[in-house]
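Internal ticket #5521
Category: modeling
Description: The requester needs a full-assembly model to guide mutagenesis choices. All entity lines are attached below as received. Residue total reported by intake: 346.
Assigned to: D.W.
Attached entities:
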Amino acid sequence: MKKDLLSLLPEELEAELAALGEAKYRAGQVGKWLTRGVRSFEEMSDLPKTLRDKLDQNFDLYRPKVLSKQVSALDGTIKYLWELRDGNAIETVVMSYQYGNTVCISSQVGCRQGCAFCASTIGGLVRCLEPSEMLDEVLFSELDSGKKISHIVLMGIGEPLDNFDNVVRFLKLVNHPKGLNIGMRHITISTCGLIERFDELAALDLQLTLTVSLHAPDDETRSRIMPANRGRGVDALIEGCRRYYQKTGRRISFEYAMIDGVNDTAFHAQELVRRARQCGAHVNLIPLNRVEERRFRPSTQGHMKAFMKILDEGGVNYTVRRTLGSDVDASCGQLRRRMEKKTETE
Ligand code: SAH
């Protein structure tokens, strides 16, 4: 079977080429073509024909195809829907901030976590993404948009910690000095709280930012809207966050999507204060995005104000997330979902 070329680290490619009787420096040449977006050996014109043939026999390359590209008229946010080699589709979003351009990438096709408010999980998990596929999300978003990517968030479709090994390999690839060379401090992983992976991640000491999708500070509410909480629990989650912070020195953030009448009462705000203090977390309040198939509504302005007042009084650090690209198909998962529905009815 052919090996997935783009999932190999530069030093691994060197070793592979050496095993094929080729000089190590050829790996650098191949690497340069790859970071320019070339995805056929034929086009690697400074390589001898014999080497190109050899590569073709041993390695696999695929170029993701743009199925749709939407550009926000409001803020320039770009949403891509890519087709993968097996016909599956994933979403990637490019957002521009003052500090640079951030790409929000998917880590799985679909998701099996079942959060009640999320569009990505509706059809379940189809498969995990390969390191190469995540890398191409970053690379082709940059090449196609012409926007130099400085920051990466794993907040698209999928649960990154449910695809642990591939995600870690992707991080090493994208961080590699011979690759895109994006600093770990510019990378954020978002998780629904698969705590059994926290220590493993902390042990890698990667200096990235870990964000936890908390969305509710108490077990009753959280288990209702996030099945991943069942059998784990908020206490264990907070303990996991505390340990992660202790080990890495990296402060955790909580994502908190405000859902009308579900997690936005005074009780929830007070509990959130307590939880954030227990592990020194920063809170990111997000106005809920409406998802067609879901019955939840975003909190009212009044409820949000009252909620924030309690956070203020509790001395919790929080920010309210700005909504970007609201005119281009709302939150992640919805583009792919829309395409699936279209093919279902065809
Ligand atoms: N599985 C990971 C990362 C993907 S989701 C996680 O759970 O963190 C990225 C973020 O979007 C998560 O915080 C998720 O809870 C949130 N999200 C999902 N659906 C949403 C919606 N309808 N409105 C607002 N945020 C949503």
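Resolution: model delivered.
Comment from assignee: The mean pLDDT is 93.
Ticket closed.
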